[in-house]
Write a structure and sequence with these properties.
This protein has eleven helices and 16 strands. The model has no long low-confidence stretch (mean pLDDT 95). The chain has two domains: 303 residues, Zn peptidases (Aminopeptidase, 3-Layer(aba) Sandwich), CATH 3.40.630.10; 135 residues, Alpha-Beta Plaits. The two termini are 28 Å apart. The strands form four sheets. Strands 1-2-6-3-7-15 form a six-stranded mixed beta sheet. Strands 10-11-9-12 form a four-stranded antiparallel beta sheet, with helices on one face.
């Protein structure tokens, strides 16, 4: 066994009760031997263009994962989340859940990864779906977020099973839809169906790209809403006969700049949110539409001369564990009422689109302790603890599944997500796979 593996094994055995140096060394050696397989698996996943929206190739990637996991002894279910947002016969929301039972009863560890990726956008210097390997990195949309993490979790589980065939309990691996658009056709639906019931699953690791030596305990809350201001249509040459809804919305934006944005900047949290700017409450104006709808592609004429009678804005408010959703909503209502009191003819509608509360797993939770010990064994330094600025599928596992022993841990640099020339480092995936495999050793160790 190479010296580095020997040292890792000894650190693991010293720090984790019930995990033997030989067992830990065997697991990490098997991950090392799977390097080429890990690279090929990641490339294959990237080359399946699971763009969301609209939800392309979901069945293709589920079929690929099912075939891979069946070969490793997993029992596989393919599950369509019929009736969920976005699901249709053209774009069905497919999910795969694979489970491998141990040789005797024990807890279940579940690795959950989303399979969908966002649009490619402009600025790429490589094929976004080529899976190109260059300078120790694999490039492509979803490489970092989060097909590299999915591949690492599969290799980790296979290495553990080979090294510890007599393990108790069960291992699950899922590939789920629609995380990038809220997760309602994926983890939310599975949680409603009981797949994350604490009686069925005890520990969950979501391999999101939060950096290989950090444990993500949870995320901030989110509140989305649409604000519509109303006006009266008239001829654009005589705007005084109408009432411009866009100008009314401009007054809303002006009041946000004057009062709400400065107030949010003063609110801070004890949550270890990264980056530092996200330790404050924030709000983004996600979109702004006023007047006539954009013409169909190919139309080359001018718009008609009309005073707009409607303007709509969607806001994306991220809030802290010290806040609550009712107060978040009231901030916006109070702002709109101030504008209404100061502006003649102003009227509005406020429609809430969705809301998710902040969540943060306790540092003493079993999955946190096991992954922290594994990180220290692999990297010879303590794990860092962070909270994500945006939500991910932990929200559904917590809120619907009522399963609290859940974290995000995986390879990749968070800042690369959704960027052009997105990549994941091969060494990062290898080291994260070792952490996940060693965490399995700890969580599924035989009872003493």
């Amino acid at each position: 066994m190479p010296l580095k593996q020997v040292r890792t094994a000894r650190r693991m055995a010293a720090g984790m009760h019930g995990v033997q140096a030989k067992e830990a060394g065997d697991v990490t050696a098997r991950v090392d031997a799977a390097r080429d397989d890990l690279v090929a698996l990641t490339q294959d996943l990237i080359r399946i263009p699971t763009l969301n929206p609209p939800g392309d190739c979901y069945r293709d990637i589920c079929d690929y994962l099912a075939a891979r996991l069946k070969r490793s002894g997993f029992a596989v279910e393919l599950l369509r989340a019929e009736g969920t947002p976005g699901d249709s016969d053209r774009y069905p929301r497919w999910n795969v859940v694979a489970r491998r039972e141990g040789r005797r009863p024990g807890p279940c560890v579940h690795f959950n990864s989303h399979t969908d990726v966002v649009e490619t956008g402009k600025g790429w210097t490589v094929d976004p779906f080529g899976g190109e390997e260059k300078d120790g990195r694999i490039y492509g949309r979803g490489a970092c977020d989060m097909k590299g993490g999915l591949a690492a979790s599969i290799v980790a589980a296979e290495a553990f099973i080979a090294a510890c065939p007599d393990y108790p309990g069960a291992i699950e691996i899922s590939g789920t839809a629609d995380e990038e658009t809220g997760g309602y056709g994926g983890v939310s639906w599975l949680a409603e169906k009981g797949y994350f019931d604490p009686a069925r699953v005890q520990h969950v690791i979501i391999p999101e790209p939060l950096n290989k030596d950090r444990i993500c305990l949870g995320h901030r809350g989110v509140w989305w809403a649409e604000i519509e201001t109303h006006g009266r249509i008239a001829h654009g040459s005589m705007p005084f006969l109408g009432d411009c809804a866009v100008r009314h919305m401009g007054a809303v934006v002006q009041e946000m700049e004057a009062s709400l944005f400065p107030a949010l900047a003063t609110r801070t949290t004890a949550m270890p949110v990264v980056p530092d700017g996200a330790r404050h409450s924030t709000m983004n104006i996600n979109s702004f539409h006023g007047g006539q709808a954009e013409p169909e592609p190919g139309y080359t004429g001018f718009p008609s001369a009309c005073v707009p009678d409607s303007a709509r804005m969607i806001v994306d408010r991220r809030y802290l564990i010290e806040e609550n959703a009712e107060d978040v909503r009231q901030d916006v209502v109070d702002l709109l009422e101030r504008v209404k009191a100061a502006r003649a003819g102003f009227s509005y509608d406020l429609r809430e689109l969705w809301q998710v509360s902040p969540t943060m797993t306790d540092r003493d939770a079993p999955v946190v302790r096991s992954v922290a010990r594994a990180i220290e064994a692999v990297f010879d330094r303590p794990a860092s603890y962070v909270v994500s600025p945006g939500t991910y599928d932990q929200k559904h596992i917590d809120r619907i599944g009522r399963l609290k022993d859940c974290i995000a841990y995986g390879p990749g640099i968070l800042d690369l997500a959704h960027q052009p020339d997105e990549y994941v480092g091969i060494d990062d995936m290898m080291e994260s796979a070792k952490v996940m495999a060693l965490a399995l050793c700890d969580l599924l160790k035989p009872a003493e």
